[in-house]
Please model this.
Amino acid sequence: MEMKIFPAEDRLQEALDAFDFGAPVLDAQRYGQGHINDTFCVQTQGAEGRRFILQRISPAAFKEPGHLMENVIGVTEYLRRQIIEYGGDPSREALEVLRPRAGGAYFTDGGGCVWRVYPFVEGTICCQQAETPELFAASGRAFGRFQRLLQDYPASTLYETIPRFHDTENRLANLKAAVAADSLDRVKLCQPEIDFVLAREKDCSVALQALRDGKLPLRVTHNDTKLNNVLLDAETGVGLCIIDLDTVMPGLAINDFGDSIRFGANHSAEDERDLSKVELDVNLFAVYTAAFLEGAEGSLTDQEIALLPWGAKLMTLECGMRFLTDYLEGDHYFHTTRPGQNLDRCRTQFKLVSGMEARWAELEAIVNQYRTT
Ligand code: ADP
Ligand code: GN1
Ligand code: MG
Model:
């Protein structure tokens, strides 16, 4: 039986009481545009008036939140040490977990849901779209660098917080199962989208086959590299702090690259309904490629660079499949604010996939400039 998930507001006060914010809480408001967790910004009283991010970890997405928090503690402490080593400011460049009064890394409410707190990283901006190529490049450098910093992180100590997260073959199987079940009688509303995926069934194996063949290495990756998962310095525009570490686990570098392209290399919202506005911007693809590889400082192999366009296409196709599956199953996974939103999101993704296919030769030419052989 699926656990019934109550609104986070029902337990918000209980969660606030579990943490010592250093001053009384003035208020706590919903914050940000993440699709998964319930995020609140906590404002405290007093001259300092500090802010914190309080999150209820999505019980729909994460079945083992304790494992997730062990990963987050391990990764943030490791990053902290690296940042200090290169002379950076760890309080702005890495997340830090604020421990609850009772100890440990998180608080479990009376309904069994898990909450955690991070200090708010002040003086930063979080973009929902690539407002300028420079800002997009800044995010690319930061994600490339993040991966390089974690290059020697002991991968075997990381839990798989969402099993088979970027297993595109399995995502396809899940979609097929949702179509077969058609529990809400929605298949009739999205047959063209289902057919779009079925025509690309073979594509779903490209990256996984390269991994199985030893052509792509497994690395410690972020796995959710969209633009709103990096905080940029408000004054300089530099990519400062990578956030949303819930899916840091072994994965493929091309997927981290690809998910950023999926979300950021266009000029429309992920749920745009006017598909004429949804276009891949090849210039932004080029800008991001240069920046990501600069941040990664030579840590990617030639094969990885060669397959970057596949990372972009597969992350976009996979994400569209996931939105479609959630639509067919009743929108339990991704937060939605209106009916049909997950189907709209699926459609933008598939429009972008078509754009990538149409301009494939250009994408390959861009990445080929950086190949070593
Ligand atoms: P989700 O998994 O739901 O996407 P995130 O961890 O990405 O949750 O948080 C949602 C949003 O909250 C982010 O996109 C960002 O705007 C904001 N945010 C999260 N952590 C911080 C932080 N430490 N400082 C400032 N803003 C943050
Ligand atoms: C979710 O958590 P958030 O909003 O940053 C999702 C990603 C999807 C993305 C689509 C844990 O990201 O995998 O690509 O939505 N995160 C999880 O916007 O499923
Ligand atoms: Mg996020």
